[in-house]
Amino acid sequence: MLGFLLRRFANYLILTVIATGIGYLLACYALNPRAKYDQVQPKPPEASITATLDDLNMNPATPPLERLATWTKGIVTEWDFGKTIDGGSVNDEFSRRIWVSLRLLLLGTILGSVIGVAVGAYSAVNQYRWSDHTITFFSFVILSIPVFVLAVALKQPAIMINDWAGTDVLLIQGEYKAGGGGWGGAALVDRIKHLIVPTLSLTLGLAAFYSRYQRATMLDVLGSDFLRTARAKGLRRRKALIKHGLRTALIPMVTFFSYQFVLLFVGAIFTEKIFGWHGMGEWFIDSIIKNDINSTSAVVFFSAVLVLLAGLLADMAYAALDPRVRAR
To answer: Which end of the chain has fewer surrounding CB within 10 Å, N or C?
Structure first.
């Protein structure tokens, strides 16, 4: 088991290095940091622009491979991702935004996964009954609504609840009120109020998505020989479905759980923009718009590391659910 995980880790580590290098080179070829200074009036002297870009390691005149070597050396020796195009520290921006995204996405991902699996399994067990048709209908309705439309649509009920209660029960803009930001007492309650609606928007979409896949995988298992054998040996239907049926049906879902969270971390752009959460997804888009090579590459590196971790978690989950993997 340990040898299996170590081999997988080595494979993922190599892929992470390759993906990060390719991402940096693509950013070098696609983005033009000099364009930022072309829009400034009066335009700075060319010598000043060149010196600034050299200091940022973003000078297009410098070969991309040379810039990649400089950027990689900074990461390996000092864990320094360089400077943003505005002169700030990429590390500082990175460390701030990663926790913003984590707070926003972690709860929504867990709730969406658990609810989606439970609803999908229940729908499969009750195939073609009214509950199955109802779940299927609402799942497809939610899946057919674009993410940004769903997020905006959830704002209106929140406003109506606030009007009905006569106070701000649900807050829909930002992580906390202006001047706040603490973690104790009233500040924590304020953060929770800001978290509820964006978490709900993520949870609904994920639950609908996972329920469809879980229903399909569960249906494949329900007619299997091993489940009928378990029932024939006297195991109760519910216990057989949970211990043998659901466990087996979860195996194909492991990959979805692992990699969907990775995609959300840098892909929840609409959610972050609409609700005013300044996380990794927003930073990635803003960096591309600003032609910020270092920041864009830092997000690519972060995504690659998340894929590595997701792959390892998926392998560990496979091993836990399928004894045949542990035997290899």
So the answer is: C
Full 3-state SS string of 218-285: HHHHHCCHHHHHHHHCCCCHHHHHHHHHHHHHHHHHHHHHHHHHHHHHHHCHHHHHHHCCCCHHHHHH
Give the pLDDT of residue 326.
53
Domain count of the chain? 1
Q: Per-residue pLDDT tens for 58-73?
A: 999 899 999 999 999 9
Q: Which domain holds residue 279?
A: 94-289
Burial of 31 (0-12, 13-18, 19+ CB in 10 A): buried
Please state, for a pLDDT cut of 70, what percent of the chain lies above it. 89
Report if residue 22 sits inside a domain.
Answer: no
Beta bridge partners of 89: 83
What's the Cα-to-Cα distance from 295 to each of 75, 89, 244, 284, 290, rounded to whole Å? 13, 9, 46, 7, 10
CB 72 within 8 A of CB 297: no
As a whole-number percent, the residues of the chain with pLDDT over 90 amount to 30
* pLDDT average, residue stretch 290-318: 85
**Position 198 in a domain:** yes
Separation between Cα atoms, residue 235 and residue 231, nearest integer Å:
5
CATH for 280: 1.10.3720.10
Q: How many Cβ atoms sit within 10 Å of the Cβ of residue 121?
A: 24
Nearest of 93, 126, 302, 287 to residue 218 by alpha carbon: 126
User: How do residues 217-268 score in pLDDT, each as one tens digit?
Assistant: 888 887 776 767 776 777 776 777 776 677 777 777 777 777 777 767 766 7
Structure tokens at 118: 């439970």
| Token pair in block for residue 53 | 């870009």
* 13 domain-assigned: no
- Residue 306 inside a domain? The answer is no
Question: What does DSSP assign to residue 179?
Answer: T
